[in-house]
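Tokens in:
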């Protein structure tokens, strides 16, 4: 289980500290898929980074009783001066995965061929995204963190990513943050909405989407 208890996060700005998350609490059990909706700037990516351990909370605690992935849209974890294969070796050592078992999958899924032996800093954006997603799928995670992902490569490759994540790993836990209501409706079991740094929970996805849609409508009205 993943347990988030009264987590807050603030960042220093030129005008003082800005609180992005306030007293966020949530539990995710094995196999559960939780979708979190929110507008741009609502704190979705911050929450996902905290759960993944890329950042520490200002207050509160996060208990990880499962092996949690890095955020699938996070591009800051790879060393540009290393080759794709060297980055795979590093990830395997970091997460205790077997390099020999992961290598064939990454070679086949990334479709990078000889470029796996090239430095990552020489990759195009699409090549980098293919490597990053392949590495994410190669490690046997219990829970995947999904942050506005799946715009990886061309349409054919995006379809492969959807199958690999949501069909072949449908037994895994997932925490997905997005402003895309269709993605949350299709893949989440229950939902939540981030508004003003606070997380509102809903057992039914339809209720979370309705709450999110109503909030968007009110926000647009206030701008008129």
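Residues out:
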């Amino acid at each position: 289980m993943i347990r988030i208890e009264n987590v807050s996060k603030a960042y220093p700005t030129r005008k003082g500290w800005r609180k992005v998350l306030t007293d966020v609490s949530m539990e995710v059990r094995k196999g559960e898929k939780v979708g979190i909706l929110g507008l741009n700037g609502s704190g979705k990516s911050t929450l996902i980074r905290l759960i993944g351990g890329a950042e520490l909370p200002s207050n509160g605690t996060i208990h990880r009783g499962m092996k949690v992935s890095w955020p699938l849209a996070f591009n800051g974890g790879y060393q540009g001066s290393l080759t794709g294969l060297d980055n795979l070796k590093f990830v395997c050592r970091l997460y205790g995965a077997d390099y020999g078992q992961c290598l064939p999958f990454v070679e086949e899924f990334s479709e990078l061929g000889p470029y796996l032996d090239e430095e990552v800093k020489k990759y195009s954006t699409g090549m980098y995204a293919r490597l990053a997603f392949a590495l994410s799928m190669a490690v046997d995670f219990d829970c995947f963190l999904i942050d506005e992902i799946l715009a990886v490569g061309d349409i054919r490759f995006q379809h492969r990513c959807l199958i690999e994540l949501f069909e072949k790993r449908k037994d895994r836990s997932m925490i997905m943050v997005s402003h895309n209501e269709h993605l949350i409706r299709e893949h989440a079991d229950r939902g939540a909405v981030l508004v003003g740094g606070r997380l509102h929970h809903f057992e039914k996805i339809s209720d979370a989407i309705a709450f999110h849609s109503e909030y968007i409508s009110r926000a647009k009205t206030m701008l008129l």
